[in-house]
Design goal:
This protein has 381 residues and is an alpha/beta fold. Helices cover 43% and strands 13% of the residues. It has helices spanning 14-20, 36-56, 69-84, 99-110, 128-134, 157-166, 186-189, 238-257, 259-277, 304-313, 323-328, 333-337, 342-346, 359-380, and strands at 2-3, 63-66, 90-94, 114-118, 139-143, 170-174, 193-197, 208-212, 282-283, 294-298, 316-317, 348-352. The chain has a seven-stranded mixed sheet with strand order 2-8-7-6-5-3-4, with helices on both faces. Strands 9-10-12 form a three-stranded antiparallel sheet. It has a two-stranded parallel ribbon with strand order 1-11. Helix 6 (157-166) links the parallel strand 5 and strand 6 (170-174). The protein starts with a strand and ends with a helix. Bound molecules: pyridoxal-5'-phosphate. Pyridoxal-5'-phosphate (PLP) binds at residues 68-70, 73, 98, 100, 145, 149, 174, 176-177, 197, 208, 322-323.
């Protein structure tokens, strides 16, 4: 099998599994207990917090573990809305956010908040000026993703956060796709809140985290036993959190060793073969401000769903839009916002690389994709 769907999820790194296993077997203690095994579980959760904090250059007290990236997005947006509703009602986001943000925004609209959805350029980028124009005195929050999950576009987070702060608004970024792939220093970026997820960086599924600056107070989404310093009640997923910590360490080492550069070279190798050796293929999204492992191409004259089924029969895992929308069959809201023609949207393929992919796999993938495109285009005529 050739796995080119690393934006959907990544394989669990063996070191993460090894670190997790004791907390799924002999040490099953609840970290809130007052006996030795509980103490070990509590220490393991704290250690994972330190590892994630090191990756983001923040204090471990600013890391809160959650059940997913989705939950982190919900906590950030609904938490700010609830705690700041006395100050203002405007929330600004972009048209190309993940559904975890967009559907939360829709919910908040129903609660009487005024939502502004910023347009993006044809490259999938938010302009700082467009945010400047949308900011008003009663804007309480701006939420723009660090990296897009479909086209990999990297937003100017530092500049956007600065402009939001000048207008007195808080700034949240969904960095689920960016984590481990680009440097993320929350102090340098100047963000107040950042959503993260373990399974996109070699950690387990069902664990997320929220970075929350100590300067900011938000209302918790979940009420209960007061775990995670009151922001996220619920017995901690100790094994999952431990796995997230190890994956964060792995990501930090990868960034230090320049793994992202190796990945972008491999990405460019496959992309150039696709563009140069197959007729009428178009790349979607910025080629400079882009995640290292992201390829998103349009194949006019072929249906993405048909190509994906054919690729699956060839044991190649790829995707159409985001993992969520590829099941729904709805046209991608990201490519639509970028203004792509309908046949480019219908024939869009996303191929996302990870640290485990090799050059041999790129050559094999190219041959499979080329033959599938030829077949799918014949079907379409
Ligand atoms: N935000 C972005 C940009 C994503 O790509 C994803 C997952 O695809 C999420 C949020 C949701 O993360 P999780 O799968 O941990 O809920």
């Amino acid at each position: 099998m050739i796995y080119l769907d690393n934006a959907a999820t990544t394989p669990l790194i063996p070191e993460a599994l090894d670190a997790m296993l004791p907390f799924l077997t002999e040490n099953y203690a609840n970290p809130s207990g007052i006996y030795r095994s509980a103490d070990q579980a509590r220490k393991a959760v704290r250690e994972a917090g330190r590892k994630l904090a090191a990756l983001l250059s923040c204090s471990p007290t600013e890391i809160f573990f959650t059940g997913s990236g989705t939950e982190s997005d919900n906590t950030a947006l609904r938490g700010v809305a609830e705690s700041m509703k006395g100050k203002g009602r405007r929330i600004i986001t972009s048209k190309i956010e993940h559904p975890a943000v967009l559907n939360t925004c829709k919910y908040l609209e129903g609660q009487g908040f005024e939502l502004i959805y910023l347009e993006v350029s044809k490259d999938g980028l938010v302009a700082v000026d467009s945010l400047k124009k949308a900011l008003t005195e009663d804007t309480i929050l701006v939420s723009v993703m660090a990296a897009n999950n479909e086209v990999g576009s990297l937003q100017p987070i530092k500049e956007l956060a600065k402009v939001a702060h000048e207008a007195g608004a808080l700034f949240h970024t969904d960095a689920v796709q960016a984590l481990g792939n680009i440097e993320l220093n929350v102090r340098e970026l100047g963000v107040d809140l950042m959503s993260l997820s373990a399974h996109k960086i070699g950690g387990p599924k069902g664990v997320g985290a929220l970075y929350k600056s100590e300067k900011v107070n938000i209302t918790p989404l979940l009420l209960g036993g007061g775990q995670e310093r009151g922001l996220r009640s619920g017995t901690e997923n100790v094994a999952g959190i431990v796995g997230f910590g190890v994956a964060a360490e792995f990501a930090a080492e990868g960034l230090k060793r320049g793994r992202n550069k190796t990945e972008s070279e491999l990405r460019d190798y496959l992309l150039n073969r696709l563009l140069n050796e197959i007729e009428d293929i178009h790349v979607n999204g910025s080629m400079t401000e882009r995640l290292p492992g992201n390829i998103n191409i349009s194949v006019p004259g072929a249906e993405a769903q048909t190509m994906l089924v054919m690729l699956s029969a060839e044991d190649l895992c790829a995707s159409g839009g985001s993992a969520c929308s590829s099941q729904s069959g709805k046209p991608s809201h990201v490519l639509t916002a970028m203004g792509l023609p309908e046949d480019y949207i219908r024939g869009a393929l996303r191929l996302t690389l990870g640290w485990q992919n090799t050059k041999e796999e790129m050559d094999q993938a190219f041959e499979k994709i080329k033959s599938v495109i030829e077949k799918a285009r014949k079907l379409h005529i």
